[in-house]
Amino acid sequence: MLPSVIVVLMLISFTCGENPAIQVILTDKGLQYGKHVGAGWIQDKLESITFPDISGEIDISIFGTVYYTLTGMTITKCDFPEPSVEFYQDSTGFKTSISGLSVALTGGWRTQFGIIHDGGSFDMAIFNVDVTSVVELGMDPDGHLSVTSVRCEAVVGDVDIQFHGGASWIFEPFVDHYKGRIRGEIEGKICPNVEESIINLESHLQAMKVSFDVDQYLTLDLPLTGSPVVDNSSLNLGLKGEFYSIKTHAEPPFEAQPFTMPEQPDYMLSVGLSEFTLNSASYAYYSAGLFQALINDSMVPPSSPVHLNTSAMGPFIPQLPKMFPGLLMDLQVYAREVPLFSFQPGAVALGFQGAIKAFAIQPNGTQTPLFKLNVDSKFSGKVWIADERLKGSMAMNNLTLTLVSSEVGTFKTDAIEGLARMGATLAMARLNEKLGKGVVLPRMKDVQLVNTVLEMDEGFIAISSDAQLITDRGFN
Ligand SMILES: *[C@@H]1O[C@H](CO)[C@@H](O)[C@H](O)[C@H]1NC(C)=O
Ligand SMILES: *[C@@H]1O[C@H](CO)[C@@H](O)[C@H](O)[C@H]1NC(C)=O
Ligand SMILES: *[C@@H]1O[C@H](CO)[C@@H](O)[C@H](O)[C@H]1NC(C)=O
Ligand SMILES: *[C@@H]1O[C@H](CO)[C@@H](O)[C@H](O)[C@H]1NC(C)=O
Ligand SMILES: *[C@@H]1O[C@H](CO)[C@@H](O)[C@H](O)[C@H]1NC(C)=O
């Protein structure tokens, strides 16, 4: 008993108090579109459905027991009215109903009555089937979405059966008599089938990954942080949305802050992305030591007026060409602190605090340290969605260089700061060319996002969108 209580408490302490960094909201519009697509899909599937044989026995009081088997049943016609589905607050889930479903079937029959075997074909019509199913959504200990059936009701309005061939004329009169029972048997089969498909869905959900490797360095954790929230117009899922370094798996020294998504009932779904998600990626790269680069002269475009050569440094560090003439230089650039993004209404800000260590490369290959500069820079950017692509632009707002230490004596940083700004401006122009082209919005296998809008808010980005099936035939 006690161990299980401890486990429960541990789970609570893990999940409570952790704010989701990603929120996904499904609106009623999205639910209705999903239902419409799902209904079309079910209708398509119904036509090709095959039923297992049904066997049973009927006691016909004066004659004895007749054993029967209905085989090879296929649907010949199906009247599939549009089901209804709604968010169901009472059970944190959905309520789905279909009313007035009618199905015509055809198949074969066999009977055994004593030593008499008989057989033929039959047509069956099942009229006015009403089914109501209520499912509850929840979260399992691993943060998967879970779904359970909490209620199912099925009513079959009427059944009509016509037997052909064999000695069907003998038992045809009994059909009316046993219609109630046949109706009951069909009724009794519907809910177990519904429940089975819900269990099936649940096992798919259980098998879903909640952690994804993004590249060789980063993994993204996406378990639910709490139970789904359902109100009468939406379903809200909170996901952890945290990147980790695959190497260190270190927890960043900052936490996800809560945020409230604006209601967007005119879109099918909304996704809110906290700045925490981006910053956790930044921290993961930082903790794995990936925010560092070595810049050498072969990376400087040949057309550049300045090269990483001590002889070319005269205008910036007058004593350098005298102390170390004609040597190539290396620059070690790295982040001193985690570069952090901050989302603000209409803009994103990024602070970068880094350092540059400069070395002269001696003819024998030895690297002689020259000086170390701190770089403090601020960037601001915008992101937007156009032509179904996520686009952006970045600008550098500030860049200051401070001399931290020097093996070549002190020097003024103004000139070299101007050079760094020029370099950064060139780099930003190249970056903006890429950002301006943008990246295609993520698409699922057969579903595409349309009418997508993006809004930057305090601490998060809200993306709202409609979805559209790419093929007309449903997702196969
Ligand atoms: C949904 O709930 C809100 C308040 O909880 C209420 O104002 C609104 O009328 C409800 N809408 C429907 C369609 O029931
Ligand atoms: C500069 O660095 C690149 C990549 O690290 C390397 O391939 C190249 O040989 C280096 N060039 C010089 C001149 O050191
Ligand atoms: C560095 O620049 C000087 C002067 O322009 C040149 O003579 C020298 O060859 C350059 N060094 C290297 C290794 O390219
Ligand atoms: C390489 O050359 C530098 C400068 O000439 C010298 O100080 C250093 O000792 C040399 N290193 C080796 C390993 O030869
Ligand atoms: C640029 O940064 C320096 C030092 O961090 C600061 O004093 C200055 O006000 C900043 N300028 C702008 C325009 O933000």
Automatic annotation (TrEMBL):
<comment type="subunit">
    <text>Monomer. Homodimer; disulfide-linked.</text>
</comment>
<keyword id="KW-0929">Antimicrobial</keyword>
<feature type="signal peptide">
    <location>
        <begin position="1"/>
        <end position="17"/>
    </location>
</feature>
<feature type="domain" description="Lipid-binding serum glycoprotein C-terminal">
    <location>
        <begin position="263"/>
        <end position="465"/>
    </location>
</feature>
<protein>
    <recommendedName>
        <fullName>Bactericidal permeability-increasing protein</fullName>
    </recommendedName>
</protein>
<feature type="disulfide bond">
    <location>
        <begin position="152"/>
        <end position="191"/>
    </location>
</feature>
<keyword id="KW-0391">Immunity</keyword>
<dbReference type="GO" id="GO:0005615">
    <property type="term" value="C:extracellular space"/>
</dbReference>
<dbReference type="GO" id="GO:0008289">
    <property type="term" value="F:lipid binding"/>
</dbReference>
<dbReference type="InterPro" id="IPR032942">
    <property type="entry name" value="BPI/LBP/Plunc"/>
</dbReference>
<dbReference type="Pfam" id="PF01273">
    <property type="entry name" value="LBP_BPI_CETP"/>
</dbReference>
<dbReference type="InterPro" id="IPR017942">
    <property type="entry name" value="Lipid-bd_serum_glycop_N"/>
</dbReference>
<keyword id="KW-0732">Signal</keyword>
<dbReference type="InterPro" id="IPR001124">
    <property type="entry name" value="Lipid-bd_serum_glycop_C"/>
</dbReference>
<comment type="similarity">
    <text>Belongs to the BPI/LBP/Plunc superfamily. BPI/LBP family.</text>
</comment>
<dbReference type="GO" id="GO:0050829">
    <property type="term" value="P:defense response to Gram-negative bacterium"/>
</dbReference>
<dbReference type="InterPro" id="IPR030675">
    <property type="entry name" value="BPI/LBP"/>
</dbReference>
<keyword id="KW-0964">Secreted</keyword>
<keyword id="KW-0325">Glycoprotein</keyword>
<dbReference type="Pfam" id="PF02886">
    <property type="entry name" value="LBP_BPI_CETP_C"/>
</dbReference>
<keyword id="KW-0044">Antibiotic</keyword>
<feature type="domain" description="Lipid-binding serum glycoprotein N-terminal">
    <location>
        <begin position="26"/>
        <end position="248"/>
    </location>
</feature>
<comment type="function">
    <text>The cytotoxic action of BPI is limited to many species of Gram-negative bacteria; this specificity may be explained by a strong affinity of the very basic N-terminal half for the negatively charged lipopolysaccharides that are unique to the Gram-negative bacterial outer envelope.</text>
</comment>
<dbReference type="InterPro" id="IPR017943">
    <property type="entry name" value="Bactericidal_perm-incr_a/b_dom"/>
</dbReference>
<dbReference type="GO" id="GO:0045087">
    <property type="term" value="P:innate immune response"/>
</dbReference>
<keyword id="KW-0399">Innate immunity</keyword>
<keyword id="KW-1015">Disulfide bond</keyword>
